[in-house]
Each structure stands twice: as C-alpha cells, then as structure tokens.
Amino acid sequence: FYCQLAEKFTQERASLYADIQALLQAGDAETAARQLHSFKSLAATLGAQTLQNKALELETLMDQGLFDAN
User: Fold this and answer.
1) What are the distances in angstroms from CA 53 to CA 27, 28, 42, 70?
2) Which of 48, 50, 61, 62 has CB atoms 3.0–4.6 Å from 66's, for a disulfide?
3) Which long-range contacts does 29-36 make (Cβ < 8 Å, 24+ apart)?
C-alpha cells in the first residue's frame, strides 16, 4: 500500500515546481503557496523528510518574497 501511495504522490506532483512557477508568474501567489503547503504536508505524511524540508525551505523563500519565478 505504501509503495502505491508513494508512486501516486510522485506521479501527481511531478510538475509541482513548474506549476508553482507558472502561478507566481501569473501573479497567483496565494494558490502557489497553498499548493506548496499541501505538498509539504503530503511529504511529511509519507515520511519523506528530505522532501518535506526542501518544501519548507521553498515555502520560507516564498513567504519572504525571495523566490524568483523566472
């Protein structure tokens, strides 16, 4: 079951970075932040600590206005 869940997570979130970039470029920081936060939470649920930490780093950069969408 865990392997199936991890595979689904990987497939569904493969384009997350590109999606967030597109949202930020379109001026929709709120949706981008929500998607990233959800991703971080899912990573934590799956026990993917490194992935969760990287998402937290990116989330912090976005909160500080330091994430460059270009």
Assistant:
1) 25, 23, 12, 22
2) 61
3) 29/62, 32/62, 33/59, 33/62, 33/63, 36/62
Q: Is 46 exposed, middle or buried (0-12, 13-18, 19+ CB in 10 A)?
A: middle
Amino acid in position 48: A
How far apart CA 5 and CA 14 sit, in angstroms, is 14
Q: Is the dihedral of CA 39, 40, 46, 50 positive or negative?
A: positive
Indicate whether 70 pLDDT > 70.
Answer: no
* pTM, to two decimals: 0.79
**In the predicted structure, residue 67 carries a pLDDT above the cut 70:** yes
